[in-house]
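Incident log entry.

Two folding requests arrived from the same account within the same minute. Monitoring flagged them as a possible duplicate submission, but the sequences differ. Recording both here for audit purposes.

Request one:
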Amino acid sequence: MLDREEHVEQAHFFGRLAERTTLGMSTQELLGMVREEALSTTKLPLAIDFLTGELKLNGVFHPAMAKLSHYFTPFQTFVIGEAESDVGRFDMMLALQILAREAQYRAQGATEQGIFLYEFESLARNRLGYDRGLKAIGGDPMFNQDWRDWIAIVRHQVGLVDFADLIYVRSEHYARRHPTADDEQPRAVLFGEGEGRIALANRGKDPLLLFNALHRHLGYPEVPRPQKPDASPQLLPQLARRLEKIEARMKLVEEELKGGIDITDFYVDPQKPPSGENPQ
């Protein structure tokens, strides 16, 4: 478990990388810039040096994050690995934004419930794969053995059992409504009354509706979403092309009003080579 200042620096690290990926600079240069901003009293500068060395050797830095398992969680390594994958479509900027918000939440005092729901929502919204993703989530040292056992159950039952049911049966709301018999082994209660009530109300619905309700009522952090591309840089060229077409049509209308269109203007001289080609 890291100190609060380490999480604050991690949030700054991932956030600054996400902001500067649009500058057209290499990742190695971006790491060097962010390193200058990191507090020297934390372990982040050493971690950035190790990531930079791995990047120079292999062109990616998620293997270095895996080796620094005492500093980066398995989920952080998994997310960066998916963004660096050649076969996936997961954007690196979005991956960095997800990790920045998670680190910020940890610095504010995260709970096991909040971390699990945030990371699971990240898998669901970005289609990152539940099997390896839940395995990475379960490797977080924040979770005790009861949590790890339940995450393993979710890993094998997700897609077969409604996710809202998986939360509901491990909540205080369910335990209060269905007391355990004397001869039954009590199951660990992992979620509170509020999570249980919201899960019960969203049974059989899209899990994204469940996540939205948890954000509204319990204040859990929202997962960043892909941003629509900015079309403003292409707006002026598009308007210019449309004006050219309008001017050409107006010219034809004026010629027709003056007495007709001279179609000879559109004839092509067979002896003249097309534009862009050199005469033989």
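Request two (distinct sequence, not a duplicate):
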Amino acid sequence: MDQSGGPANGEAIPENFHLISNIAAAVSILLSNLIATGIGISVRQRREHESEIRAWAARTARLGSVTERNRIAREMHDVVAHSLTVMISLSDGAAVVVKKDPERAGEVLGELSRTGRTALADMRRVLGVLREDSARPAPWSLVSGHDLSKLLDGFRTAGLPLHYSHTGPALPEDPALQLTVYRIVQESLTNVLRYGRSLSQVDVRIVREGDSVTIEVLDDGRGSREPGTEEAALGTGQGIAGMRERAGIYAGTVDAGPGIHGGWRVHAELKWNGDKGKS
């Protein structure tokens, strides 16, 4: 020690040295705790985010599965209801005319065979998506035989006094939209064939104006398809619901009910913006 009694090296220790050391240690510990807490929060948030992503993926998969099942159900209903209705009508017609007009009976039986073959092809296409090894859903495009003019000819052969008109440009080259139009016309005419009585005229009108496609099927029959009636009890209501689901894909609507002058009327509106999407 020197003569003043201070440290031998001549440097004085501050009186608050220990206090400063304690504060520094406390700050260091606090910073360590804050860093650890931040890391913990970050890890927890990342795990929560990953959990939310997994839950979202699961919900999306379930929704996709339900949507696909509904699509298959619509296709199955349309194929079975239409084909069986037409085939029954053709069989009954052939039985009536076979003795009076064999040539006409041959035409009816030929249409019966074509309807059955088309139905079989449709069923194979739809059932194909139910296989476990099927990696993707059945395509929306029209398969062979799905031609609107052939559909209308088949209903004429089955006995419907059918008149068809198309106003405006041709339908867009969109297979999904064309299939939607086809199925709505098919379901509407199938119901006319099943429920219509004393028919003298059935009109099918398709109008395309800009991005709007309108489908109208109107008959003058005296049969009733009101809820609770005998004719309505023959169906399940899935047909109209299916048409509305199909139209909904194109932000459209379907109205079905008694016509102003009697009979039954189906009116569908579809919106198509494919041209805008391509520009």
